[in-house]
Amino acid sequence: MNTKTIPVGQDILSPAKQAAADLRADFTRRGIFIVNIVSSPGAGKTSLLEATARHWGGQHKMSVLVGDLATDRDAQRLSPLAPTVQLTTGGACHLEMPLIKKGLEQLGPIETEFLFIENIGNLVCPASHDLGEHLRVVVLSTTEGDDKPGKYPKMFRTSQVLVITKTDLLPYVPFSVDSAVADAQLIQPDIQSIAVCARSGEGIAEWCEMLEAARDRMVASRDDHAAVH
Amino acid sequence: MNTKTIPVGQDILSPAKQAAADLRADFTRRGIFIVNIVSSPGAGKTSLLEATARHWGGQHKMSVLVGDLATDRDAQRLSPLAPTVQLTTGGACHLEMPLIKKGLEQLGPIETEFLFIENIGNLVCPASHDLGEHLRVVVLSTTEGDDKPGKYPKMFRTSQVLVITKTDLLPYVPFSVDSAVADAQLIQPDIQSIAVCARSGEGIAEWCEMLEAARDRMVASRDDHAAVH
Fold first, then answer.
1. B100-103 long-range Cβ contacts below 8 angstroms, 24+ apart
2. What are the backbone angles phi and psi of residue A140, rounded to the nearest 5°?
3. Contact: B123, A154; criterion CB under 8 Å
4. From B71, B91, B172, residue closest to A154, measured CB to CB
5. A149-153, A223-227, B51-55, B166-170: least confident range
6. Of the candidates A19, B35, B149, B172, which lies 20 to 30 Å from A217 by C-alpha distance?
7. Which residues in A lie closer than 8 A to residue B73 (C-beta atoms)?
8. Interface predicted TM-score of the whole assembly (ipTM), two decimals
9. Which domains does chain A have, with CATH numbers?
10. In chain B, what residues touch A43 (CB-CB under 8 Å)?
């Protein structure tokens, strides 16, 4: 029996990982910064995006792909504020690349600087799926308890930013922002954290500036890379 | 080629469904009522069980299997109040029968009237897994929004009871108990609903009475069945 060793010069990615890497490379070239927002159900992902759109008021262009198992309730909320496509999984617990691609087709050839992907409300399954994002943001609301990072470690380990929402409820719930951040840092020491209240606008300017700076870094890194080659 | 038709007198269940059905039958015989509690992360499942144990104060015997991806934080909270075993899935998004069986072995041959299974905080995946429960209870906190039943339909469709938690926060959040219940009833018209606040104890007596009545019905039905045969 003949056997043959095939030399490989690079990692062979699974089709899903390859599709995510290709999307990221393509959107980097186009200057579009992709943000994958993950959280429990009802943590305030949609409210955060509403507040983001209101804060920018057209100054920065944003589009949204919003995922749910069923209904177009979130797209109904976001569509008046930004180009939005509702993705419904019919039951699946996370978004995957084929649905992202369909959503992008439906969004069409719009100009945008930021593409937000609002994932399914689920603090477990979306952690395992790269959607081509430049930044993964985990949203934790003050009403969920400050013990959640350690209990759902993969989601916090794979995120670069922790947004703590519903700070207006802090007087009424047993939640310490410092404890939640410390618990997340045990898992992901480099995680950046911001506390916000979408209803009052507290922290939203800081959140938006963080996004703008992250996109600027992506664009600068792309241009540096192009200048070298 | 010979072919043979094998007549089957009953549904052939998958091994997981069979194990769940066997557990339910066994615990029915022993008079132990199994309650599978499902919800988003941080909806208040553990707090509800703490309040339940405090309300009963030993008048009714309860045991708990509590599931998490990681940590034994929930078992640490519940152990002082009731025999509790922490199940950690290491990453899996729901509990399954083999882990339930291991938990029961670890719990040992204790006397109990109620076995609570606190599932992984996840409003999607646990919906698809029968754990041998007599009653599935979905917990929804007032801070998650009253639009969740329609967005996570399978979980509400497969539950018999909806417990709305954190009613103390109603003055501060955009949540209507009536809207949430109506949304759940669109999916599951027979769902029974109770609003509670584990911190103040509001609704906890009603919740406990509901559980006691449900267990009484199970025992009566078992005895009727035994009398006929």
1. B100/B23, B100/B65, B100/B131, B100/B132, B101/B19, B101/B23, B103/B65
2. -130, 125
3. no
4. B91
5. A223-227
6. A19
7. 147, 150-151
8. 0.91
9. 16-221 (3.40.50.300)
10. 144
